[in-house]
Every structure is written in structure tokens, then in C-alpha cells.
Specification:
about 200 residues; alpha+beta; eight-stranded mixed β-sheet; 4 helices; 10 strands; globular; binds coenzyme A
């Protein structure tokens, strides 16, 4: 059983394997590095939210079985070890199921000291502040522990919930890229949002 220190946002926690792993704990959610044992819960989260996720996230149709999530978790572990990404399972503090994912990618090369924040939450756990708190925990970790100077995000201009979360985290709107991404067979613009370490107030 993992021990956690809810008052310390970067508490070190013992994993089942006994290794020391970082865990970020807030009032409502806890971020933990994914383990392969999380694959069924991750698949269930995607499966239960497929319609709500596929409008915004390009990878959703590629997830067809638990094995796809196990492969994702292994890939995320490799990318974390190489310093390319930082991928966390978002869990309810009160021992709930995996409720989503919060991640930073585009971390390499390290000299650029920046990363891209992505977050998704399963449809039946939304509007409880989970994405905002999970994002806040990871952004704080990025600035205080990973040494990042800038965190950015890209969203579809029609993604009002995504924009609201970024605003609550203090991100600033920086502009719009035209036809930047093709999803569900159509080109969409992307809004660019950014947060500097000097903007960050916990
Ligand atoms: C965006 C997303 C992560 C938000 O998750 P969440 O846990 O519900 O977020 P929070 O509860 O922290 O905050 C959501 C905010 O958006 C608001 N919101 C939700 N739907 C909205 C809508 N259609 N229009 C405007 N605001 C909306 C909520 O009211 C809340 O704001 P409030 O606290 O001021 O009331 C979730 O909707 C999701 O997984 N979307 C698909 C993936 C995605 O788009 N990710 C973002 C880009 S990486």
C-alpha cells in the first residue's frame, strides 16, 4: 500500500515494487507515474469516454484494447527515462479509479527548458476541478523540480473547457496557428497558450 503525505506536493512514495517514486498529491487528486498494472483502468477510462475524447484527441481511435494502453505505458516510461516526456496517471485522492492523464511532452532538448501540457479526464469525472488541480500539480513540479522556464499548450479554439482550465492555471493566450492539425478528417486551427516560470504563482 502506498504511503502519501498530502501536505507535500512532491512527496516520495513507495511503489509496490519498493522503489522510491515521486507522487504529487493535492486535495482532490493524486498524480502517479503509470505502471503497467494501470492498463485495464486506463483502457476503461478511454472506453467509457470515447465519444467525449475523440473530438479533441487524435490518438483515441488507435486505442482498441488493453494491450494498446500497456504499450502506451511502456512507451511513456521509456520517454520519461530519456527526459522527453513526463506522463502521470490522475487518481482521485480517495482511492478512486484512474480518472485521467496529465502529461508534459516536447521536453527535449533539455536546453530549451520547456514542455507542452496535455490533460484529459474521463467523462464521468469532469467539472470537479480535477484537470485544474492535476495541471497545477504538474506545472508546479515542472517549474520547481524539472527546471522548466516555459510550459505551453495547444488547443482547438472551440475547446471551451480546455481553455477554461488553462485560464484557471494562469496561462496566457499567445496566438493562433491556422490549419495546424488534422483530426477526424478535418483541419483545425490551434490556439497557443503559454505560462512562464516568472508568471507562476501557486
Ligand atoms: C478539458 C478537460 C481536461 C477538463 O477536465 P475537468 O476535470 O472537467 O476540468 P475542471 O473541472 O478542472 O475545469 C473545467 C472548467 O471548464 C468549464 N467548462 C466545462 N465545460 C465547458 C463548456 N462547454 N464551456 C465553457 N466552460 C466549460 C467548467 O465549468 C470548469 O470551469 P469552472 O471551474 O470555472 O466552473 C476535459 O473536459 C477533457 O478531458 N477534455 C478532453 C481532452 C481535452 O480537451 N484536453 C485539453 C487539451 S490537452
Amino acid at each position: 500500500m502506498a504511503e502519501s503525505l498530502p501536505e507535500d506536493p512532491s512527496s516520495a512514495t513507495k511503489t509496490r515494487a519498493g522503489a522510491r517514486a515521486l507522487e504529487l498529491t493535492g486535495k482532490r487528486v493524486r498524480l502517479k507515474p503509470l505502471e503497467e498494472a494501470d492498463a485495464p483502468a486506463l483502457f476503461d477510462a478511454v472506453e467509457s469516454s470515447r465519444e467525449a475524447l475523440k473530438r479533441w484527441l487524435v490518438w483515441v481511435p488507435e486505442v482498441g484494447a488493453q494491450g494498446d494502453e500497456a504499450a502506451f505505458i511502456r512507451r511513456s516510461g521509456t520517454e520519461s527515462a530519456r527526459g522527453e516526456a513526463s506522463v502521470w496517471g490522475l487518481f482521485e485522492v480517495r482511492a478512486g479509479p484512474l480518472a485521467g492523464i496529465v502529461s508534459l511532452d516536447a521536453l527535449a532538448p533539455a536546453e530549451r527548458a520547456r514542455g507542452r501540457l496535455c490533460v484529459w479526464v474521463r467523462a464521468d469525472r469532469r467539472s470537479r476541478g480535477y484537470a485544474t488541480e492535476g495541471g497545477r500539480l504538474l506545472v508546479d513540479h515542472a517549474f520547481r523540480k524539472l527546471g522548466l522556464h516555459r510550459v505551453f499548450s495547444r488547443i482547438d479554439p472551440t475547446n471551451r473547457a480546455g481553455r477554461r482550465v488553462l485560464r484557471k492555471l494562469g496561462f496566457r493566450y499567445e496566438g493562433r496557428l491556422r490549419d495546424d492539425w488534422k483530426i477526424n478528417g478535418r483541419w483545425i486551427d490551434h490556439e497557443c497558450w503559454g505560462l512562464l516560470k516568472t508568471d507562476w504563482k501557486r
